[in-house]
Amino acid sequence: MKLPVTASYEARVHRTGALERAITLDSVEVRAPRSGTEMRLARYFGMLGVGGTAAAALAAGSFVHLHSPGVLRVSRRPGYVDIVISGVVAEGDRLWGSEWWLGDLDVFRESLANSTPRIDVLGPAWFLRIDRDVLRSWAMRDLSVQRMLHQVLAERYRILETVYGVDQRSTHARLAQLLQYLARRRDVLDAARLVPKDEDVLQGPTQKHLADALGLSLASVEKCMSVLRKHGVLASTGKGRANRVYNILRPELLQAVAHGHALEAAWPLPLV
After folding, report:
1. For residue 192, what are the contacts with CB-CB under 8 A and spacing of at least 6?
2. Cβ-contact 228, 174 below 8 angstroms
3. Alpha helix stretches (DSSP H) within the chain
4. Contact in structure between 139 and 104 (CB atoms under 8 Å)
5. What's CA 88's distance to the chain center, in Å?
6. 181-230 residue pLDDT tens
7. Whole-prediction pTM
8. Can you spell out the DSSP letters for 197-218?
9. Are 245 and 237 in contact (CB under 8 A)?
Protein backbone atom coordinates (compact mmCIF):
# COMPACT_ATOMS: atom_id res chain seq x y z
CA MET A 1 0.00 0.00 0.00
CA LYS A 2 1.41 3.39 -1.02
CA LEU A 3 0.08 6.85 -0.39
CA PRO A 4 0.23 9.49 -3.11
CA VAL A 5 2.85 12.18 -2.57
CA THR A 6 1.12 15.53 -2.08
CA ALA A 7 1.49 17.62 -5.21
CA SER A 8 0.85 21.10 -3.81
CA TYR A 9 1.62 22.21 -0.28
CA GLU A 10 0.17 25.65 -1.05
CA ALA A 11 -3.20 24.03 -1.86
CA ARG A 12 -3.20 22.30 1.53
CA VAL A 13 -2.29 25.59 3.21
CA HIS A 14 -5.24 27.23 1.46
CA ARG A 15 -7.61 24.53 2.69
CA THR A 16 -6.09 24.73 6.17
CA GLY A 17 -6.59 28.49 6.19
CA ALA A 18 -10.22 27.99 5.26
CA LEU A 19 -10.58 25.48 8.08
CA GLU A 20 -9.04 27.89 10.58
CA ARG A 21 -11.40 30.66 9.52
CA ALA A 22 -14.30 28.30 10.16
CA ILE A 23 -13.15 27.74 13.75
CA THR A 24 -14.01 30.13 16.57
CA LEU A 25 -13.61 29.78 20.29
CA ASP A 26 -17.38 29.64 20.71
CA SER A 27 -18.25 27.22 17.93
CA VAL A 28 -16.32 24.51 16.15
CA GLU A 29 -17.07 23.51 12.58
CA VAL A 30 -15.05 20.59 11.27
CA ARG A 31 -15.83 18.71 8.09
CA ALA A 32 -15.57 14.95 7.88
CA PRO A 33 -12.38 13.55 6.29
CA ARG A 34 -12.66 13.67 2.50
CA SER A 35 -10.13 11.05 1.50
CA GLY A 36 -8.69 7.74 2.59
CA THR A 37 -5.44 9.48 3.51
CA GLU A 38 -7.26 11.94 5.78
CA MET A 39 -9.14 9.06 7.40
CA ARG A 40 -5.86 7.30 8.15
CA LEU A 41 -4.38 10.51 9.52
CA ALA A 42 -7.42 11.04 11.76
CA ARG A 43 -7.11 7.42 12.93
CA TYR A 44 -3.44 7.98 13.73
CA PHE A 45 -4.11 11.07 15.84
CA GLY A 46 -6.97 9.23 17.51
CA MET A 47 -4.62 6.40 18.50
CA LEU A 48 -2.37 9.03 20.07
CA GLY A 49 -5.28 9.91 22.36
CA VAL A 50 -6.72 12.89 20.49
CA GLY A 51 -10.51 13.27 20.53
CA GLY A 52 -12.48 12.63 17.36
CA THR A 53 -13.26 16.25 16.44
CA ALA A 54 -9.72 17.44 17.05
CA ALA A 55 -8.25 14.40 15.27
CA ALA A 56 -10.29 15.22 12.16
CA ALA A 57 -9.15 18.86 12.28
CA LEU A 58 -5.49 17.89 12.66
CA ALA A 59 -5.85 15.44 9.77
CA ALA A 60 -7.31 18.20 7.58
CA GLY A 61 -4.30 20.40 8.41
CA SER A 62 -1.75 17.66 7.66
CA PHE A 63 -0.37 15.66 4.79
CA VAL A 64 2.04 12.77 4.22
CA HIS A 65 4.96 13.04 1.81
CA LEU A 66 7.94 10.98 0.73
CA HIS A 67 11.29 12.77 0.88
CA SER A 68 14.40 11.69 -0.97
CA PRO A 69 17.86 11.86 0.67
CA GLY A 70 19.12 15.40 1.17
CA VAL A 71 18.27 18.49 3.17
CA LEU A 72 14.68 18.48 4.42
CA ARG A 73 12.76 20.92 2.27
CA VAL A 74 10.92 23.68 4.09
CA SER A 75 7.91 25.68 3.03
CA ARG A 76 8.15 29.41 2.42
CA ARG A 77 5.28 29.69 4.87
CA PRO A 78 6.71 29.45 8.40
CA GLY A 79 5.09 27.38 11.08
CA TYR A 80 4.89 23.62 10.72
CA VAL A 81 5.82 20.44 12.57
CA ASP A 82 7.16 17.34 10.82
CA ILE A 83 6.82 13.82 12.22
CA VAL A 84 9.29 11.23 10.94
CA ILE A 85 7.08 8.26 10.06
CA SER A 86 9.71 6.08 8.43
CA GLY A 87 13.41 6.68 7.87
CA VAL A 88 16.32 8.39 9.62
CA VAL A 89 17.24 12.07 9.81
CA ALA A 90 20.30 13.87 11.18
CA GLU A 91 20.01 17.05 13.22
CA GLY A 92 23.60 18.10 13.84
CA ASP A 93 25.35 14.97 15.13
CA ARG A 94 22.16 13.42 16.51
CA LEU A 95 20.18 10.79 14.59
CA TRP A 96 16.41 10.55 14.92
CA GLY A 97 14.07 7.81 13.76
CA SER A 98 10.42 6.89 13.57
CA GLU A 99 7.93 9.18 15.37
CA TRP A 100 10.45 11.85 16.20
CA TRP A 101 8.76 15.27 16.00
CA LEU A 102 10.73 18.02 14.27
CA GLY A 103 9.88 21.66 14.76
CA ASP A 104 8.72 24.00 17.49
CA LEU A 105 6.40 22.14 19.88
CA ASP A 106 5.94 25.10 22.22
CA VAL A 107 2.62 25.88 20.58
CA PHE A 108 1.52 28.32 23.28
CA ARG A 109 3.80 31.04 21.90
CA GLU A 110 4.44 32.42 18.46
CA SER A 111 7.00 30.47 16.47
CA LEU A 112 10.39 32.15 16.21
CA ALA A 113 11.30 33.14 12.66
CA ASN A 114 14.24 31.31 11.09
CA SER A 115 14.58 29.07 14.15
CA THR A 116 14.35 25.75 12.30
CA PRO A 117 17.70 23.91 12.36
CA ARG A 118 19.10 22.10 9.32
CA ILE A 119 17.71 18.58 8.98
CA ASP A 120 19.43 16.06 6.70
CA VAL A 121 17.36 13.14 5.41
CA LEU A 122 19.74 10.18 5.27
CA GLY A 123 17.63 7.86 3.12
CA PRO A 124 14.15 7.69 1.58
CA ALA A 125 11.86 8.83 4.40
CA TRP A 126 8.16 9.44 4.95
CA PHE A 127 7.02 12.52 6.87
CA LEU A 128 3.74 13.71 8.29
CA ARG A 129 3.65 17.51 8.12
CA ILE A 130 1.22 19.38 10.37
CA ASP A 131 0.32 23.02 10.02
CA ARG A 132 1.53 24.51 13.33
CA ASP A 133 -1.30 27.06 13.43
CA VAL A 134 -3.84 24.23 13.39
CA LEU A 135 -1.90 22.32 16.04
CA ARG A 136 -1.68 25.43 18.18
CA SER A 137 -5.34 26.33 17.76
CA TRP A 138 -6.53 22.91 18.88
CA ALA A 139 -4.02 22.60 21.70
CA MET A 140 -5.44 25.82 23.16
CA ARG A 141 -8.98 24.45 23.26
CA ASP A 142 -8.74 20.66 23.51
CA LEU A 143 -7.03 18.93 26.42
CA SER A 144 -6.56 15.73 24.43
CA VAL A 145 -4.23 17.58 22.02
CA GLN A 146 -2.29 18.99 24.97
CA ARG A 147 -1.93 15.49 26.42
CA MET A 148 -0.61 14.22 23.08
CA LEU A 149 2.05 16.95 23.02
CA HIS A 150 3.03 16.20 26.63
CA GLN A 151 3.43 12.52 25.71
CA VAL A 152 5.56 13.47 22.70
CA LEU A 153 7.84 15.58 24.91
CA ALA A 154 8.08 12.79 27.50
CA GLU A 155 9.05 10.32 24.77
CA ARG A 156 11.64 12.78 23.48
CA TYR A 157 13.29 12.99 26.90
CA ARG A 158 13.16 9.20 27.26
CA ILE A 159 14.99 8.71 23.95
CA LEU A 160 17.58 11.34 24.84
CA GLU A 161 18.23 9.52 28.12
CA THR A 162 18.21 5.91 26.91
CA VAL A 163 19.95 6.37 23.55
CA TYR A 164 22.21 9.36 24.07
CA GLY A 165 22.53 9.62 27.83
CA VAL A 166 25.97 9.24 29.40
CA ASP A 167 26.27 5.93 31.27
CA GLN A 168 28.66 3.07 31.92
CA ARG A 169 27.44 0.75 29.17
CA SER A 170 29.88 -0.78 26.73
CA THR A 171 30.36 0.47 23.19
CA HIS A 172 28.54 -2.64 21.92
CA ALA A 173 25.53 -1.86 24.12
CA ARG A 174 25.34 1.80 23.13
CA LEU A 175 25.60 1.02 19.42
CA ALA A 176 22.98 -1.75 19.69
CA GLN A 177 20.65 0.64 21.52
CA LEU A 178 21.01 3.25 18.77
CA LEU A 179 20.45 0.70 15.98
CA GLN A 180 17.40 -0.68 17.77
CA TYR A 181 15.92 2.79 18.21
CA LEU A 182 16.51 3.87 14.61
CA ALA A 183 15.01 0.64 13.21
CA ARG A 184 11.95 0.50 15.46
CA ARG A 185 8.37 0.95 14.27
CA ARG A 186 5.62 1.45 16.82
CA ASP A 187 2.46 -0.61 16.42
CA VAL A 188 0.37 2.56 16.17
CA LEU A 189 2.02 3.46 12.85
CA ASP A 190 1.35 0.04 11.36
CA ALA A 191 -2.23 0.06 12.68
CA ALA A 192 -2.85 3.47 11.07
CA ARG A 193 -1.43 2.17 7.77
CA LEU A 194 0.17 5.50 6.93
CA VAL A 195 3.12 4.07 4.99
CA PRO A 196 4.30 0.64 3.80
CA LYS A 197 5.99 -1.43 6.49
CA ASP A 198 9.66 -2.38 6.28
CA GLU A 199 10.57 -5.46 8.26
CA ASP A 200 13.60 -4.87 10.50
CA VAL A 201 15.56 -2.91 7.90
CA LEU A 202 17.46 0.25 8.78
CA GLN A 203 18.40 2.58 5.92
CA GLY A 204 20.28 5.85 5.79
CA PRO A 205 23.09 6.33 8.30
CA THR A 206 26.67 5.43 7.53
CA GLN A 207 28.95 4.04 10.20
CA LYS A 208 30.43 7.55 10.42
CA HIS A 209 26.97 8.92 11.25
CA LEU A 210 26.59 6.29 13.98
CA ALA A 211 30.03 7.08 15.41
CA ASP A 212 29.44 10.84 15.48
CA ALA A 213 26.01 10.43 17.09
CA LEU A 214 27.47 8.44 20.00
CA GLY A 215 30.74 10.35 20.27
CA LEU A 216 32.75 7.24 19.37
CA SER A 217 35.61 6.68 16.99
CA LEU A 218 34.83 5.23 13.59
CA ALA A 219 37.20 2.33 14.31
CA SER A 220 35.20 1.40 17.44
CA VAL A 221 31.92 1.37 15.53
CA GLU A 222 33.41 -0.68 12.68
CA LYS A 223 34.69 -3.25 15.20
CA CYS A 224 31.29 -3.50 16.92
CA MET A 225 29.47 -3.85 13.60
CA SER A 226 31.84 -6.65 12.64
CA VAL A 227 31.01 -8.51 15.86
CA LEU A 228 27.25 -8.08 15.28
CA ARG A 229 27.59 -9.41 11.75
CA LYS A 230 29.79 -12.31 12.88
CA HIS A 231 27.10 -13.44 15.33
CA GLY A 232 24.34 -13.13 12.72
CA VAL A 233 22.60 -10.25 14.50
CA LEU A 234 22.54 -8.14 11.37
CA ALA A 235 23.66 -8.22 7.77
CA SER A 236 24.86 -5.26 5.77
CA THR A 237 24.76 -4.40 2.10
CA GLY A 238 27.09 -2.03 0.33
CA LYS A 239 30.81 -1.65 0.72
CA GLY A 240 32.97 -0.04 3.38
CA ARG A 241 32.01 3.38 4.71
CA ALA A 242 29.36 3.82 2.01
CA ASN A 243 27.25 1.18 3.72
CA ARG A 244 23.78 2.58 4.46
CA VAL A 245 21.47 -0.46 4.70
CA TYR A 246 21.38 -2.83 7.70
CA ASN A 247 19.16 -5.90 7.84
CA ILE A 248 18.44 -6.86 11.44
CA LEU A 249 18.30 -10.65 11.35
CA ARG A 250 17.99 -11.35 15.09
CA PRO A 251 16.27 -8.41 16.80
CA GLU A 252 16.04 -10.28 20.11
CA LEU A 253 19.84 -10.52 20.26
CA LEU A 254 20.22 -6.86 19.35
CA GLN A 255 17.90 -5.99 22.23
CA ALA A 256 19.86 -8.21 24.62
CA VAL A 257 23.13 -6.51 23.64
CA ALA A 258 21.49 -3.09 24.08
CA HIS A 259 20.59 -4.15 27.65
CA GLY A 260 24.22 -4.92 28.38
CA HIS A 261 24.55 -8.67 27.77
CA ALA A 262 27.90 -9.84 26.44
CA LEU A 263 27.27 -11.28 22.99
CA GLU A 264 30.29 -13.56 22.84
CA ALA A 265 29.62 -15.14 26.24
CA ALA A 266 25.87 -15.59 25.92
CA TRP A 267 25.39 -16.82 22.35
CA PRO A 268 27.48 -19.16 20.20
CA LEU A 269 28.39 -18.28 16.66
CA PRO A 270 25.76 -19.28 14.07
CA LEU A 271 26.39 -22.50 12.19
CA VAL A 272 27.74 -22.03 8.68
Report:
1. 40, 41, 43, 44, 47
2. no
3. 9-21, 36-47, 52-60, 132-139, 143-164, 171-183, 187-192, 207-214, 218-230, 251-258, 263-266
4. no
5. 7
6. 998 877 777 676 777 666 667 888 999 999 999 999 999 999 999 999 88
7. 0.78
8. --SSEEES--HHHHHHHHT--H
9. yes
